[in-house]
Design a protein that fits this description.
DUF1840
Length: 135
């Protein structure tokens, strides 16, 4: 799959990387294609599905962050408790730090889909099509 440019008379154009395009089409429930168009009427469905995916991602990230916080508190308490092996606690702390660093380096789906959501909203409001294809 190649890089794809999304465009509309209602907004400027932008390029999506193949991996992001695959995620979007999976969320929409539509087969992946290198070109196509979305009518202003169909934009509402796309917006709804993409916003739902963004909300789900936000919930998952919050749950993961909460789990890391609980584990970190457990590790901190473990360092103060006699009888626990410091090596295991250090390994757990290292794992938590590596996981937090990995999460910081990942560009969330919500950020990658934002330009498309904005375009869809503008296109819907102005009654314009959104088109995509290989530049």
């Amino acid at each position: 799959m190649a890089i794809v440019r999304f465009s509309s008379k209602a907004a400027g154009s932008f390029i999506l990387m193949p991996e992001t395009q695959k995620q979007i089409f999976k969320v929409i429930g539509r087969p992946l294609s290198e070109s196509g168009a979305i009518s202003a009427e169909d934009a509402a469905e796309w917006i709804e599905k993409l916003e739902a995916a963004v909300a789900l991602e936000k919930q998952q990230r919050q749950r993961a962050q909460e789990e890391r916080r609980r584990c970190r508190e457990k590790c901190e308490a473990g360092f103060r408790s006699p009888g626990l092996h410091a090596k295991e606690l250090f390994e757990e702390e290292d794992r938590l730090q590596a996981e937090a660093q990995e999460q910081k380096s990942i560009v969330p789906f919500s950020a990658r889909v934002y330009p498309l959501l904005q375009m869809l909203r503008k296109a819907r409001k102005k009654g314009e099509m959104v088109m995509w294809g290989i530049p």
